[in-house]
Specification:
The structure holds two protein chains of two kinds.
Chain A: E1 4-7, E2 10-14, E3 19-25, E4 33-38, E5 45-50, E6 56-59, E7 62-67, E8 72-77, E9 86-92, E10 101-102, E11 106-111
Parallel strand pairs in A: 2-11
Antiparallel strand pairs in A: 1-3, 3-8, 4-5, 4-9, 6-7, 7-8, 9-10, 9-11
Chain B: E1 5-7, E2 10-13, E3 19-24, E4 31-38, E5 42-50, E6 53-57, E7 64-68, E8 74-78, E9 87-94, E10 102-103, E11 107-111
Parallel strand pairs in B: 2-11
Antiparallel strand pairs in B: 1-3, 3-8, 4-5, 4-9, 5-6, 7-8, 9-10, 9-11
Classes of the chains: A mainly beta, B mainly beta.
Chain lengths: 112, 112
């Protein structure tokens, strides 16, 4: 019930294309859903986050789509660039208290 | 504003030893969470400290412990090290709890 399932495990996209990463959860008590980007040798960096009262949030080229009834959320990266090549993690948490439950990660490679 | 600082960056220990890792949160942040990252298990929550009190705990054995000081700096201790404890240990800080968490670049612990 505490799991967050992420897919795909790896993704190859051409420069300028759209990268889409999906996550699903079971626990309806989750109320905060962030996405993190991690480069080799670095810690995860917060990209964008959403709460379940909103169906979509956009920041620059990054968009989160949230489907509360399906218990799914996804990250869309528009106009993907080689510099976006990294590992992406979705996560979820409940209320206050810094306990993030992470998905398994997606290794994104953007080809020039 | 300085980010989350973790020391040391790299550590090599042998089985049976113990180790202490340090985390200095972003100035003003009162919550510090610790995570273990491995290729097989991904990112797993260890524990969270808020105002010097452990507020959340993950599913790790008692060999893993932590504490937080009055200046919000935190330490994590692992006793009787096992080969399986080899991992990247990440610390994250936030103002009050889950939103948003900012990660350090981690301590890479290798057990020989």
């Amino acid at each position: 019930q505490q799991q967050v399932k992420q897919s795909p495990q790896s993704l190859i996209v051409q420069k300028g294309g759209i990268s889409i990463i999906n996550c699903a959860y079971e626990n309806t008590a989750f109320d905060y859903f962030p996405w993190y980007q991690q480069f080799p040798g670095k810690g995860p960096a917060l990209l964008i986050a959403i709460r379940p009262d909103v169906s979509e949030k956009k920041e620059g080229r990054f968009t989160i789509s949230f489907n509360k009834s399906a218990k799914q959320f996804s990250l869309h990266i528009m106009d993907s660039q080689p510099g976006d090549s990294a590992t992406y993690f979705c996560a979820a948490s409940i209320g206050q208290g810094g306990k993030l439950i992470f998905g398994q990660g997606t290794e994104l490679s953007v080809k020039p | 504003k300085a980010g989350v600082t973790q020391t040391p960056r790299y550590l090599i220990k042998t089985r049976g030893q113990q180790v202490t890792l340090s985390c200095s949160p972003i100035s003003g942040h009162r919550s510090v969470s610790w995570y273990q990252q491995t290729p097989g298990q991904g990112l797993q929550f260890l524990f969270e400290y808020f105002s010097e009190t452990q507020r959340n705990k993950g599913n790790f054995p008692g060999r893993f412990s932590g504490r937080q000081f009055s200046n919000s700096r935190s330490e994590m201790n692992v006793s009787t090290l096992e080969l399986g404890d080899s991992a990247l240990y990440l610390c994250a800080s936030s103002l009050e709890g889950s939103t948003p968490q900012h990660f350090g670049d981690g301590t890479r612990l290798s057990i020989l």
